[in-house]
Design a protein that fits this description.
heterodimer, A: mainly alpha, MetI-like fold, B: alpha+beta, Rossmann fold, OB fold (Dihydrolipoamide Acetyltransferase, E2P), 2 domains, 6-stranded mixed beta sheet, 5-stranded antiparallel beta sheet, 20 strands
């Protein structure tokens, strides 16, 4: 079936895309402002706020903390999610379906509901405003992406390859390492990138489970906006945007090349 | 030389829910045999092969190999070679890496691996293909890589799960010849699974015919073809005619029975009761048309209702009225009968094999 969109449809699509994207792009010119408060540049583009960001200990620490928690959480989510998909690979049944549904639940629950729940639970468990607490939140947020992408890749993998490997003398672990994991390598990487990006900019829950101690970027940005309107916020937003975009590009690259199916992610 | 039992399945039963995929299966395989597990789909032939390979754990019975019970040994410790349906080559590895895999698993040195890979590639005539990916090979080449991978570590037993079913007819013929030559050259014991009776009869030294999880008959291809034990075997192998006789009675020369109004003689191979029923199977090529030429022939009267020439053979459908329909197969070199001719269909009494009334 071939379908050629008319000029009207293309125009409409562009308008919708612009509506979705342009507001977030406003941070980019704002980060180059030559004034001292959050605004668009008046006379010239200036890098002064980038310099200030680089010099500011607190912002740098936030940036590193966010990067650190996101990387740690994405790594954990990738290991757990991949193990989950492999464990349930090719098994069907009511309980299995329930289990899969539970892992994907964070995608469906409204952010604010999850945030409230996490806030109450984390306070009880003593995880409120701790790095561990933030990492656990990001793991939960990233896990569904890893599960979706890796189980889609496994569904494409011929299960007799596992039998072949075992008939050739390889035990289950070696078969996992030499046959299963290499076949879904691209999808695991894509899942990792998606988990990284989603953890990196998870804001709602993060705001609820952090306070004064754990100043990850969303927390720090929120606080800065509340107490003053420092244009460094625009700089940070631009950097976050750039990094997220880079992550998405890496994901697209991998899913195009390898076994990962973009429509499933 | 006395062939002592090499691989044996004793009373193997495997159930899936209520359905018995294998129902008390006994098979004896001697060293150096080329055994074919033959049967229609759902007969349990692949399940039997997978039980030998170690992927199916039977609920009852045991499998012994060279005198050792291997029923519960995991597949990776059996050391057999398996060629899977669809070949299951590793797509992310080259041909050479696929074949080297079992040797690496066994911790062999790089030099030994390289040498063995080259030797087996030479054996299956794929030298020069080392660096190709499986996806770049034709179906026949993939099959040869799968065979090379399963043979490179010199397993005592090679298991083949419908290795030819995915290929077109002409290629299948070539690869059948290739398999037969390989078996003759290596002397390795082969166990092959197929639903193609021609393949089974052509390749094997022994055929095990399965039906609904049971062994219907096992023996050399000649035995199974010439002496089918049941009506099912006679029909499945060579599509023989099966005639039902009733009113069995013993005369001074032997047993006779009625197929409709025709009286036919029977050489009993199984118990027969006076007044009871019996079945005979008659091969298509054992039947002639016209007046019966000798005293040791039986015949029924009827009409030729269809004649069809297929290359070198002519297939004739003969309506024996109340005795039933008969299918005949004769070389196209003899005079071809015409449709509508009223005549006799005859065969030598020795060619009518007494079979058991088991239709499946």
């Amino acid at each position: 079936m071939t379908y050629r969109p008319t000029a009207w449809i293309v125009g409409l699509a562009l308008v919708v895309a612009a509506f979705l994207i342009v507001p977030s792009l406003i941070a980019i010119p704002a980060s180059f402002t030559d004034r001292t408060y959050l605004s668009l540049p008046e006379h010239t583009f200036s890098l002064q706020h980038y310099k200030r960001f680089a010099a500011d200990q607190a912002w740098r620490r936030s940036f590193m903390l966010s990067a650190g928690t996101a990387l740690t959480a994405a790594t954990i989510a990738t290991v757990l999610g991949t193990a989950f998909s492999i464990g349930l690979w090719g098994i069907a049944g009511r309980w299995i379906g329930l289990l899969k549904g539970m892992v994907l639940l964070p995608l469906a629950i409204p952010g604010i509901v999850a945030a409230l729940a996490m806030y109450l639970l984390w306070t009880k468990l003593g995880l409120y405003d701790t790095v561990t607490g933030v990492i656990l939140v990001q793991v939960a947020v990233g896990l569904p992406f890893v599960v979706i992408v890796t189980s889609a890749a496994l569904a494409m993998l011929d299960a007799t390859q596992v039998k072949a490997s075992r008939s050739l003398g390889a035990g289950p672990w070696r078969t996992l390492r030499r046959v299963v994991l290499p076949s879904i390598r691209e999808s695991i990487l894509a899942g990792f990138v998606l988990a990284l990006v989603s953890g990196w900019d998870e804001s709602v829950i993060t705001l609820f489970v952090t306070g004064r101690n754990v100043q990850v970027l969303p927390r720090k940005i929120w606080d800065s906006l509340r107490y003053d309107i420092d244009p460094i916020v625009a700089v940070v937003a631009t950097l976050m945007l750039a990094l997220t975009l880079a992550g998405v590009l890496v994901f697209l690259l991998f899913s195009k090349r390898g076994g990962g199916r973009p429509e499933a992610g | 030389m006395v062939k002592r039992s090499f691989l044996s399945l004793e009373g193997i039963t495997k159930r899936y829910g209520r359905h018995a995929a294998l129902d008390s299966v006994d098979v004896e395989i001697a060293r150096g045999d080329f055994v074919t597990l033959l049967g229609p789909s759902g007969s349990g032939k692949s399940t039997a092969l997978m039980a030998i390979a170690g992927f199916v754990l039977p609920e009852e019975g045991r499998i012994t190999f060279d005198g050792t019970d291997i029923t519960r040994v995991p597949p990776e410790r059996r050391g057999f070679g398996v060629v899977f349906q669809g070949y299951a080559l590793f797509p992310h590895m080259t041909v050479a890496a696929n074949i080297a895999y079992p040797l690496e698993v066994r911790g062999e040195s790089r030099a030994a691996i390289d040498q063995k890979v080259r030797r087996v590639l030479d054996l299956v005539q794929l030298l020069g293909m080392e660096e190709r990916r499986p996806s770049m090979l034709s179906g026949g080449q993939q099959q040869r890589v799968a065979i090379a991978r399963a043979l490179v570590y010199e397993p005592p037993l090679l298991l083949l799960d419908e290795p030819l079913s995915a290929l077109d007819r002409k290629l299948r013929g070539e690869l059948q010849a290739g398999l037969k030559a390989l078996h003759a050259r290596l002397g390795t014991t082969f166990v092959n699974v197929t639903h193609d009776q021609e393949e089974a009869l052509g390749l094997s030294t022994k055929v095990v015919l399965l039906s609904r999880g049971r062994v219907a008959q096992q023996g050399s291809p000649g035995e199974i073809y010439d002496r089918p034990r049941t009506a099912f075997v006679a029909d499945f192998i060579g599509n023989a005619n099966v005639l039902a006789l009733d009113g069995m009675s013993q005369t001074q020369h032997g047993w006779v029975g009625q197929a409709g109004t025709s009286t036919l003689r029977l050489l009993p191979l199984h118990p027969v009761a006076a007044g009871g029923k019996a079945m005979v199977a008659i091969r298509q090529e054992a039947i002639g048309l016209g007046a019966p030429p000798a005293w040791d022939c039986d015949a029924i009267e009827g009409t030729v209702i269809d004649v069809e020439r297929i290359g070198p053979v002519v297939r004739v459908l003969f309506d024996g009225a109340d005795a039933g329909l008969l299918r005949l197969s004769m070389p196209a070199t003899v005079e071809t009968p015409t449709s509508g001719t009223a005549t006799h269909a005859w065969w030598r009494v020795a060619d009518a094999v007494h079979v058991l009334d088991e239709r499946s």
